[in-house]
Write a structure and sequence with these properties.
metal ion binding, copper, 5 helices, Thioredoxin-like_sf, disulfide bond, 17% strand, 221 residues, SCO1/SenC
Length: 221
């Protein structure tokens, strides 16, 4: 019987551990099909593609904003696209820099995938002008072909955040435009403008899960 050295077994053990670690790092979706969401409680609705209930299910409404290049961005910009959206402001000293860094991870992940786009809304549109957004984009390595930083009417942006994307967690609390919108959430939207996931934009594990869920969504389409 052939004998192996301790060094040999140590090498094999090390390779097994490395393989296990790599497998753990490669996130996969928890389900074969992502649920749909229609309200701020984010109660999952398990509907099949083509289900008649989707005909009147919550979708992101029409809007018109302007991006860092001064180009108009509307719902048509994301026609037949999957996109991830968030809300930030350029002078934010707290959570926004980390959110932007994690959005950059998404930009890199889907850089060569024309099916996936990113959308970041400024919650201080009165100060985040096109020029300010352009400078911010250049400083953060934002690619206009992949990632839109948008400004526009404050009410439009706040209504989108609270009533369409449901990014705030203050359930039942009535808020107005005078109440500042500040959230770390990333929202995943499918090609039909349906919300399919919400994620903590500060958490690397959540971002990894988001990447996996985008790939699951692509299989669905």
């Amino acid at each position: 019987m052939k004998k192996y050295s301790i060094k040999y077994y140590s090498l094999i053990f090390g390779l097994v551990l490395l393989g296990c670690k790599q497998t753990e790092q490669e996130k996969t979706s928890r389900v074969e099909m992502l649920p749909y969401y229609s309200d701020a409680a984010f109660t999952p609705h398990w509907l099949s593609k083509g289900d008649k209930a989707l005909e009147e299910f919550h979708t992101i409404p029409n809007y018109s904003l302007v991006n860092q290049l001064g180009a108009t961005v509307t719902e048509d910009t994301f026609e037949n696209k999957i996109y991830i959206t968030d809300f930030f402001f350029t002078t934010c000293p707290g959570i926004c820099p980390k959110m932007t860094a994690n959005m950059s991870i998404l930009q890199d992940e889907f850089l060569n995938d024309d099916e996936v786009l990113l959308l970041s809304h400024s919650v201080t549109p009165e100060t985040d002008s096109v020029e300010v957004l352009k400078d911010y984009a250049e400083a953060k390595g934002v690619l206009a072909s992949k990632w839109h930083l948008v400004t526009g009417e404050r009410q439009t942006i706040y209504d989108l955040g609270r009533q369409s994307y449901f990014v705030e967690e203050d359930l039942g609390e009535v808020k107005t435009d005078d109440d500042f919108l500040h959230t770390e959430n990333f929202v995943l939207v499918d090609k039909n403008k349906h919300i399919r996931g919400i994620y903590n934009g500060l958490n690397k594990t959540a971002v990894a899960q988001l990447i996996a869920d985008v790939k699951t969504l692509q299989k669905e389409n």
